[in-house]
Amino acid sequence: MSDAAPEQGNPRDDSLRELAVADTLTRISKGIAHEICNPLSQITLAADLLGGQRPLTDERRSQIAKVLHQASQRIDRAVTQLQQACSPLQEAMEVLDSGPLLQGTLSALKLPAHLSLEAEIPTQGLPRIKANAKYLGIALRHLLDNAIEAMPKAGRLTLRASTRQIGQSQRGSWQQSTSLNAGDLALCIEICDSGPGIPTQQLHLIFEPFFSTKPAGQGSGLGLAAARKIISLHEGQLDIANLPQGGVCATILLKALNQA
Amino acid sequence: MSDTAPKKKILLIDDEPFITNLMAMNLEDTGRFEVREQNDSLQALETIMDFVPDLIVLDVMMPDLDGADILYRIKNDSRLKHIKVVFHTATVRESDLSGDGKLINGFPFLPKPATTEQMVTFIDRHLPA
Ligand SMILES: Nc1ncnc2c1ncn2[C@@H]1O[C@H](COP(=O)(O)OP(=O)(O)OP(=O)(O)O)[C@@H](O)[C@H]1O
Ligand SMILES: [Mg+2]
What we know:
The complex is a heterodimer of chains A (260) and B (129).
Chain A: H1 11-51, H2 58-86, E1 94-97, H3 98-108, E2 115-120, E3 128-131, H4 133-149, E4 155-165, E5 185-192, H5 223-233, E6 237-242, E7 248-255
Parallel strand pairs in A: 2-4
Antiparallel strand pairs in A: 1-3, 4-5, 5-7, 6-7
Helix pairs in contact in A: 1-2, 2-5, 4-5
Chain B: E1 8-13, H1 17-29, E2 33-38, H2 44-51, E3 55-58, H3 67-75, E4 84-89, E5 109-111, H4 116-126
Parallel strand pairs in B: 1-2, 1-3, 3-4, 4-5
């Protein structure tokens, strides 16, 4: 315990933390059960139809095929996301120019026709960062997906990048291992939407693996767990907050490298 | 005998349409059940009133109202509380139920995945005579 941060010295905080971890494990095991046993149930019942007495009509046959495909995609997706959320980031970090990186993200973005886009990514002056382009891309993807999914009918997606100086109170919680200190310069990436926002009583749950409010089969609840994992392996910080004017803003802070 | 016996009415409440669909087809193929599906937990109560099933197969983890909420409402409604309720869920394991007053304690449940044969045996065991 000698290397514990000072704010963790309080034994009450430790037991709270233990409770939180136990709760997280329960949620993870329930989540795995849910995302795997439901498609397994589909597979089992589809097999019963195939082996049953009733002759297979073409309609039934194609329905069964669809169900089996959906089941296997769902398990595949849960496993992939679980790996992203839990496995250590092995790929190497490199020094990257954040401007071109984010311009790339922007041009790869497939914005649904019912949404408008506000992008503020300066072509010059954004810092260099130490990052893994592929994983950082995955994290951005999860955040963009959430923003887009929050606005099924209409809305505005904002993608903004800037250089920011870290303030005193901006250091993350114990959940995030960050190398950011007050006074440091950081690349700040913001992804905001004009959707309904996140109910206050759910804000503490959104990073939990398998926490999802999306309909069955549409969200496995691993996007934010994976994104936060990736950002903390970059020793950066990811925060999600409701905006006063409505909607949600996800903020990523990554340490800016000293300009050469 | 089974050909002439009136079909028992089974209501499946689960937010996964693929699952209720497959269950309904399998159960109906036995020729012994009349099955209705409801995938929207908010409409569950209405469907129960309307269909008046002999037995309800209820999922636990659903958006909006979960299985425990729905069970609570059924058991607190004098018109509905006689209806037999069983759970069919991916998230509750046998081991969860051994302890004290868990959510679905006292109510029979069948873990997912289950074969049609297991489902039919389970339903038969819990159907009111
Ligand atoms: N921009 C947002 N607006 C509103 N709610 C959000 C937003 N981002 C996240 N959430 C809430 O947080 C939950 C968890 O998000 P997360 O990305 O981890 O999982 P998911 O989107 O449900 O599923 P997945 O990302 O695995 O497909 C969402 O289900 C939703 O309730
Ligand atoms: Mg998501």
